[in-house]
TrEMBL record:
<feature type="transmembrane region" description="Helical">
    <location>
        <begin position="51"/>
        <end position="73"/>
    </location>
</feature>
<feature type="transmembrane region" description="Helical">
    <location>
        <begin position="100"/>
        <end position="121"/>
    </location>
</feature>
<keyword id="KW-0812">Transmembrane</keyword>
<feature type="transmembrane region" description="Helical">
    <location>
        <begin position="198"/>
        <end position="218"/>
    </location>
</feature>
<feature type="transmembrane region" description="Helical">
    <location>
        <begin position="22"/>
        <end position="45"/>
    </location>
</feature>
<feature type="transmembrane region" description="Helical">
    <location>
        <begin position="127"/>
        <end position="150"/>
    </location>
</feature>
<keyword id="KW-0472">Membrane</keyword>
<protein>
    <recommendedName>
        <fullName>DUF624 domain-containing protein</fullName>
    </recommendedName>
</protein>
<keyword id="KW-1133">Transmembrane helix</keyword>
<feature type="transmembrane region" description="Helical">
    <location>
        <begin position="171"/>
        <end position="192"/>
    </location>
</feature>
């Protein structure tokens, strides 16, 4: 029994277990967004199909939330090496589904409108410069979606409150914001230049990198909003 415990506490075993967990979560993530995968195969990504892509893309929200929830569980329970990762993922998916869908619907609607506006102004000779305004707006929407999505997995706040918390932490930790923007730009560039199918290959690594940078934000939210409220 002692030898078995020492084996499971070895660095090599823990590393291999973490990698295998990430792989299992990644497979579950791909299954959760299977409708998006089918659309990538059979539906052209164009302005004509934006009304189809927008609602389908909402399914990304609960899948991302489930994977983030699994990673947070792993971070909070590093010694729990034997919990079924498939069960953990789908339990997290079910638990966060409604809240994630609400947040995802809001951001997918905003992003769809902004993308249509970008395409509209890029074809205009007079107001073409306005497309850059909407590109910046699109980038801000994506960053807010990331910050608010992570908070939404761990805590239960109103969407307005999560937006304020996200903005506050962005201003408090500029370095983390720059890193998140860099990861996001790199992620979008890989998917854009190498093909949409790379969304399924690099998504888990992207989530892991972003979450690693924003873990202190959850402690900050807990200390400044949860703990103070309970103390009051």
């Amino acid at each position: 029994m002692v030898e078995n415990k020492q084996f499971t506490e070895g660095k090599l075993y823990v590393l291999s277990k973490n990698i295998s967990d990430l792989f299992i979560w990644h497979i579950c993530f791909c299954l959760a967004i299977a409708p998006v995968f089918l659309c990538l195969l059979f539906l052209e990504f164009s302005m004509r199909n934006v009304l189809i892509w927008a609602p389908i893309s909402i399914l990304l929200a609960p899948a991302f939330s489930a994977e983030i929830s699994c990673m947070l569980y792993k971070n909070d329970n590093p010694k729990d090496l034997f919990k079924g990762q498939v069960v953990l993922f789908w339990q997290s998916y079910k638990k966060n589904f409604v809240d994630a869908i609400k947040l995802g619907a809001i951001f997918c609607t905003i992003i769809a409108i902004v993308i249509v506006d970008i395409a509209k102004f890029q074809t205009s000779e007079t107001y073409g410069f306005l497309s850059w305004f909407f590109i910046i707006l699109l980038a801000l929407a994506l960053i807010f979606a990331i910050y608010m999505g992570i908070i939404n997995v761990k805590f239960k706040f109103r969407i307005r409150d999560m937006a304020v918390m996200s903005l506050s932490y962005m201003l408090l930790n500029i370095i983390a914001l720059v890193k998140v923007i860099s990861f996001t730009v790199l992620f979008i560039a890989v998917v854009f230049y190498l093909g949409n199918m790379w969304l399924f290959i690099v998504s888990t690594f992207y989530i892991y990198a972003v979450l690693h940078e924003l873990l202190p934000m959850l402690d900050w939210v807990n200390a400044n909003f949860i703990a103070k409220k309970e103390a009051a």
